[in-house]
Amino acid sequence: LCTTHDVPKYFAALLTYHTRDAPVRKSILAPKGSDWTAAFRAFTKTFRAKTKVDWDERLVPRRSSWAEQEGAFVYTPPKEGEPRGEVAADFVITS
Questions:
Q1: How many CA atoms lie within 13 Å of 84's alpha carbon, on the beta-carbon side?
Q2: Residue 90: closest CA among 31, 3, 29, 12
């Protein structure tokens, strides 16, 4: 997720996909100029589609075999003390 420093703020949601066997792929999930709701919704929808985990459930521990069975990307929650991706009502994303 990216934002402008202007007021009002505008957002964009981008996806970069890396694998060992294929070239890097990039996608625009929400174009620049989107509002927060549209950009965050596009991000969380794609997160769910790729990981099979809802954004609000991302910190719940799961067995790695679960993701393999579901055909999902393996999402590893951040270690203790690392950013958790929490979004406050007045949260502002910086690029």
A1: 10
A2: 3
